[in-house]
DNA sequence: GAGAGATTGTACCGATTGTCTAATTTGATA
DNA sequence: TATCAAATTAGACAATCGGTACAATCTCTC
């Protein structure tokens, strides 16, 4: 069951690499992975959901391998950092991730956009924290600027250099070049004192920012409690209570609430006669849209 | 007639800004600009063609205004350059150009992709030439690297700063910050001597670079003439001669040879018994790959 | 072997791009 | 002013796509 779903993801990934995301129709995926349409929509609620599932597996794998490079090593060793960057760029290349990203970045699906935005935010944060470890706490005020610039230098130089030179060492050369540049920039900005982005912004951007807010937690708790009421006496309604608790836990405790899961659970709950079209459910949806998805 | 077409472009532009390119259907454009579907397809062969027409007008306007800022001014004055960058970024912003670019960059339309690629290449070249004027001829070997890095720094910092701070001065601050950084980088790389991109690459990338080369034209002419030989006496073989002439014209006269067309014509020609697997055909293919596609 | 859940195949819906055509309007010329 | 070619219109139409619905079938577990 689980491996079958993974198999579909894998086959779709292959098609996306070959033809691109938009150009791959669902029928292509069905044919290529040998499943029926009904099965597909049993696994994923849409083509975008499949893409999110694909991204998630790739992200996790990348994070795992990237972190393994650090085990037992000195976090301030810049050579380790270079290896990490090379690993990530190499994975991007072999999975055609940059192309997929760009293709999807401006999609019409709000959920997908959010997902990508969170992904790029996370890698910016990771970069910032690595910079702190490498260049020292005293440079902190400038390191978010520098992380952002490093991303820009790296991506642009890699793109242009790859066009110019077909070399298997492109990634290696560009990473080293970019690291040399950013090291000098860090020296320079910490002398001139110029700064654009305060590192505190990371907390504000973080999905946790809102969640650490006391008012947020209380409001959510109140809403969920209210919705659970009709079920608390009825023993047969354990499932609904569990679903509501799940939403609460996911929003409060999970670093990155899986919005697609929450949406799915909301859908399930909305099918419940006792919740369908109630004011409480609408309030919950509006609340999530407002404070978690930052919409409306 | 002409102004009517321009009117459609203008209306579509408005819709693209409001809803995005993908999300705007042709029907939307028809309704909003009050024309019939037939008229639309009389003006543009597709929605992508319309987008290219829109980009073209915006490009021209941007180039015009940007160059006007230089009239009667010192080209090495960095303040003028800053004004030029601000102008371009401001136009990007007000026209939602960056979003449109990204949305379209990975489209499936080869022509559209080529168009965008040429656009970004042109602005890289412009930036390089401005840097030469500002930072001096002696820095030339490093200025293509720096132009590329400047683009990266600028776009990433602007994106992140705009997310962080809703300020009308965002563009102003980010441009100045980026210029300060790149100025120091130029000093630094010209001391360390590190280089990735040779400025000569600009000529190789340029559509005109190779084509203005006398040797290129003569060689191509010789190859094509050679291939036409078997057909010149036979009146029934007009088509093959026309196809060969087409390739020649397309490569020599067209600013951006439509490679997909040429490939298609080559395929057709290769099916011709008199050309199939001949040394001449192979020479032509190799020639095109080498001098036009910059491959192998 | 009975039954629940997963899977299949297929028909169907609505939206979209793009083609085609017959009828009508416009505009320049004689 | 009359004429006629070109431009424009309205809409039917085909093809494709994402997604829904559902009855029939298969698989696995108790």
Please provide a written account of the structure:
The structure is a homodimer of 296-residue chains. The first copy, chain A, has 296 residues and is mainly α. Chain A has helices spanning 2-19, 26-33, 37-43, 47-68, 78-94, 97-105, 110-135, 140-164, 170-192, 201-205, 207-211, 214-232, 238-253, 259-270, 279-291. The model of chain A has no long low-confidence stretch (mean pLDDT 84). The first copy, chain A, binds a DNA duplex (30 and 30 nucleotides) through α3.
In short:
2 copies of one chain form a homodimer. Chain A is mainly α and 296 residues long.
Helical region count of chain A? 15
Task: Please state the average pLDDT score of chain A.
Answer: 84
Secondary-structure element series of chain A = HHHHHHHHHHHHHHH
Our measurement of the CA-to-CA distance between the termini of chain A, rounded to an integer number of angstroms, reads 38 Å
Strand proportion of chain A, as a percent range, falls in under 5%
**Which percent range fits the helix content of chain A?**
over 70%
Work out the number of β strands of chain A. 0
Largest sheet of chain A: none
Largest interface: A-B, 43 and 42 residues
Given as residue ranges, the uncertain stretches of chain A (5+ residues, pLDDT < 50) are none
The structure class of chain A reads mainly alpha
Task: Based on Cα principal axes, name the global outline of chain A.
Answer: globular
**Which oligomeric state applies?**
homodimer
Rounded to the nearest angstrom, the radius of gyration of chain A is: 22 Å
């Amino acid at each position: 069951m689980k491996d079958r779903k993974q198999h579909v993801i894998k086959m779709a990934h292959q098609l996306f690499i070959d033809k691109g995301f938009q150009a791959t129709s669902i029928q292509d995926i069905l044919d290529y992975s040998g499943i029926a349409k009904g099965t597909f929509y049993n696994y994923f609620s849409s083509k975008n959901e499949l893409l999110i599932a694909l991204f998630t597996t790739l992200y996790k794998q990348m994070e795992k391998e990237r972190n393994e490079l650090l085990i037992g090593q000195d976090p301030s060793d810049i050579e380790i950092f270079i290896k990490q960057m090379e690993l990530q760029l190499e994975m991007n290349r072999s999975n055609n991730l940059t192309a997929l990203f760009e293709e999807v970045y401006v999609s019409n699906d709000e959920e997908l956009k959010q997902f990508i935005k969170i992904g790029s935010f996370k890698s910016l944060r990771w970069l910032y924290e690595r910079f702190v470890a490498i260049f020292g706490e005293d440079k902190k005020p400038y390191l978010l600027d520098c992380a952002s610039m490093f991303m820009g230098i790296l991506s642009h130089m890699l793109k242009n250099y790859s066009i110019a030179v077909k070399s298997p060492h492109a990634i290696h050369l560009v990473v080293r070049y970019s690291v040399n540049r950013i090291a000098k920039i860090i020296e320079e900005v910490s002398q001139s004192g110029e700064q654009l982005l305060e590192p505190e912004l990371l907390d504000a951007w973080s999905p946790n920012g809102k969640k650490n807010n006391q008012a947020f937690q209380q409001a959510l708790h109140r809403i969920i409690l209210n919705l659970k009421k009709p079920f608390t006496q009825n023993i047969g309604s354990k499932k609904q209570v569990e679903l509501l608790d799940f939403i609460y836990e996911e929003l409060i405790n999970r670093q990155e609430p899986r919005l697609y899961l929450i949406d799915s659970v909301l859908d399930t709950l909305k099918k419940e006669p006792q919740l369908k079209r109630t004011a409480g459910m609408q309030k919950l949806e509006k609340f999530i849209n407002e404070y978690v998805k930052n919409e409306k």
